[in-house]
Amino acid sequence: MNTPWHLDEDLRDRYVSGAASPALAASVETHLLACASCRALLTPAVAAPRHDAIWNEIVDRVDAPKQSLIERLLLRAGIQEGNARLLALTPVLRLSWLAGVAVALTLALFAANSGGRGLVVFLALAPVLPVAGVALAFGNGVNPMYEIAAASPYPPFRLLLLRASAVVAATVLLAVLAATLLPTDTWRAAAWLSRRSP
Amino acid sequence: MLNDDTRTDAELVAAVASGDRGALGVLYQRLAPMLVLRLTRRCSDPSLVDEVVQDTFVAIWQGAGRYDGRGEVAAWAWGIGVRRLIDGLRRRPAATASLADVGEGRDVMTSAEDAVLLGVEHGDLGGALNRLSPELPAVVQATILDGLTTREAGQLLGIPAGTVKTRMTRARAALREELA
User: Which of B48, B133, B145, B148 is the best mutation test for A, with the most CBs of A within 10 A?
Assistant: First the structure.
């Protein structure tokens, strides 16, 4: 770029300290956009620790693992970033509570098809099963992250509730699907759904 | 030193678009000081400035493919940066309080040396701009020099868009009178 003048250190210092008049500062800024050597002159004006700290943050964000589909869906649904990751990154637990859901739904179908007595049994059991599954999977021996979870500054009971509500939310979805398979008496499906919502 | 990289800024952006992290580092070395200092003149909260600079380079990393090769890379990066600043200020409105004095109140500091320099380098325009009443230069800076729309300028300065328009009209009239 052929510009008639360049920054010297004195002008740079006045620009950085804010002592330059508005018109001069504007000229400096416009010139900087077009002049690489004057931009290089600015480097010492930003403290090196600050310069490096910003860069490290950028690297962290650029290198951050891509969010899984489930995590992005949870975030879109307005769940906090930390909680979303907590839910999405526990595929082992996911398996155990999915199994719990499957058992509950099988029981539900069986009960609904076997008349009044069966109904009482499944109304009592169905809401408890998935949550009990989570509580079990949360314990030592089954959960590979037990020590980490126990040592982390996150209330265990809150973690249990968080996971249980994830289970229940997913269960309602599956239950609606299963409800379409139930016999024609649809109010029972509704009773079952409302009974299991927390 | 990263500064020894001989690629031009535009070549570096192309390299970033193809996933070259090193190229992003070189761009950061070259452009970050300008962004930090220029944003600091528009926002007195250093932590917000740092955040905006981070956002800008993350945006460059993700959107390098959208650079069309026209104009300076530095100007493109500044365009991203100033808009990220506006977003940041909207999320953190407390920081706008200090914006009222951006680009003004510095006339007190104008030395005789400045006046001479301006006379030489900028002719009457620079002097006329400096003699504008205090709230006008900030608006001129945001709309003409930073290339923001009336609405964006209003958000940056924490004033309604209508006020930006009336101040611009007044600034134009004042400059015309000064230069006549």
Answer: B145
